[in-house]
Design a protein that fits this description.
Layout: H1 17-30, H2 40-47, H3 51-63, E1 67-70, E2 76-79, H4 88-92, H5 120-136, H6 139-145
Helix pairs in contact: 1-3, 2-3
Length: 157
């Protein structure tokens, strides 16, 4: 009996590692009350993400208007808008294209260049569904939905 090769978590990623870091960090920040600033070092420590890398990710979100930051000893990051006004696409979009023109499952290139594969219609529908999820789900939706989930940082909030 032949066995399929083992897969890694990365082989099933819907979003890149960087986009995941961005999303996890924004969710962590969004759990803080009001205008509280969250230092990048704290976020990195709680999420177990390299601090310098996370700082670049958060600064990109700041430039895109998702976050606001204040420098200095008492500085940090906070959401620029209420969590229910921030679609997940705004958080992951600066790091990758979500659900647009997915690669062909069978050919490794874009369908349409020389016809479409037999999986094209179904795969295109899945990609569109993924994009709709990121477009129509807000940061607040995920915070509400994970109320019973224990996150690595839950003891700090």
């Amino acid at each position: 009996m032949s066995r399929a090769p083992a897969t890694t978590d990365a082989s099933w990623r819907v979003i890149s590692q960087t986009a995941e870091y961005a999303l996890r960090a924004v969710l962590y920040i969004a759990r803080r009350p009001g205008e509280e600033l969250v230092p990048v070092g704290e976020i990195a420590r709680m999420l177990q993400v390299p601090e310098r890398y996370l700082a670049r990710v958060l600064n990109r979100l700041r430039r895109k208007g998702v976050l606001t930051s204040v420098r200095g000893a008492r500085g940090g990051f906070r959401l620029n808008e209420p969590a229910d006004s921030v679609p997940l696409l705004d958080v992951v979009g600066p790091f990758q294209t979500v659900g647009e023109a997915p690669p062909c499952l069978l050919r490794g290139q874009r369908c349409g260049e020389d016809g479409v594969c037999s999986a094209h219609a179904a795969w295109h529908g899945v990609a569109a569904g993924v994009r709709e999820f990121f477009l129509n789900t807000t940061v607040a939706d995920l915070i509400r939905d994970d109320a019973g989930v224990t996150a690595p940082w839950s003891e700090a909030t």
